[in-house]
Design brief:
homodimer; alpha/beta; Rossmann fold; 8-stranded mixed sheet; two-stranded antiparallel ribbon; about 35% helix; NAD(P)-binding domain-containing protein (chains A, B); oxidoreductase (chains A, B); P5C_Rdtase_cat_N (chains A, B); NAD(P)-bd_dom_sf (chains A, B)
Chain lengths: ~220, ~220
Amino acid sequence: MQIAVLGTGEVGRRLASRLVQVGHRVVLGSRTADNAEAHTWAGENHSAHGTFAEAATFGEVVVNATGGLVTAAVLEAAGAANLAGKVVIDVSNALDFSRGFPPDAVTFDGLGVAETIQRDFPQARVVKTLNTMNNKVMVRPDLVPGDHVVFLSGDDADAKAVTAGLLRDMGWRDPQIQDLGGISTSRATEQFVIMWVHMNGVLGGGSGMWNIGVLRGEDTPFV
Amino acid sequence: MQIAVLGTGEVGRRLASRLVQVGHRVVLGSRTADNAEAHTWAGENHSAHGTFAEAATFGEVVVNATGGLVTAAVLEAAGAANLAGKVVIDVSNALDFSRGFPPDAVTFDGLGVAETIQRDFPQARVVKTLNTMNNKVMVRPDLVPGDHVVFLSGDDADAKAVTAGLLRDMGWRDPQIQDLGGISTSRATEQFVIMWVHMNGVLGGGSGMWNIGVLRGEDTPFV
């Protein structure tokens, strides 16, 4: 598949490298065409880089790996026409560190990042995923044992199926991929990130190499 | 131990019954002394009931099992003097259903319920716990297999130790009891509840008989 990854930070480069590794063609997008990190990444990965708009034009799927606080500006630069009809996978979180650590999860008129993308780019088929774990676990879920989980939120079933396919390419197994429902459910996963930050300090030893799982019991009559 | 459980809803009665079952003396507190559900509960459990203030006076430990939206009024009725120096275990969530289902998690000037309790009753030793799961799982964690988790948040280490003891009495095992840190971390678990609601519909089949666990991987050099 042709995939645009917008954002040259750790998350964007990690995702882009892994998608290349598993056989996709990736253009890494950044604000300006002469981005040094994107240039280095492209050389190391035998891939291309370009502006947000150039990357989005290339992509059949567009991955937003920019910070949620700048996502609106990034996607405007990418161009609504270059997103129309496409699967837009949003892996971002909008974290506000202005009150220190831990950060707050920002909402926009009560909506999360992915919801605002879907509202502002109604022709895009937005799917939220991969925003509830460390970026190493995102792309190498096999590094954490067991049925830890990744969530999908989105209004377009086909777009979620395409996204699930990319997750499988990176090593996620079907029992791990949990469809939470429509795009509004992404607000819940975006709010979860603050708990992730706390849990990471205590449970992950700060390493990020952990994830949540779901343990089920019998719904027996209660005594 | 002498324990006050404030709130006669399903959560309060479930907790109160279980605490009696494992050997504690419990007074179930409600707004008025003639509460019919509290009266029935007391008869069935060979225990007493009373007003919020009467219950709080009795309790060495006071459990807030009222809804987070009314907690401030409930604890004011219980009386600051009756909470001073005591372990106050807050299991509540503040859910706003005014925009329909799923609800929003309410904050108060940016603070969660447990944070506002600690702020408004500075002599109480507030611990947040048990607010991230169904009330059956709260009191019978053995009904869900494996190392699913319960969180503790609070500023007072001794109060958290007392709370952990009560959790153990109900069947929680040490690897399941995760101390997240100070009371401010409870805001994260209160925000998690919205994700719980979504997950419960999809993953728990609506039964509530599930919980999250933490799966850990090795922090190996990443390739």
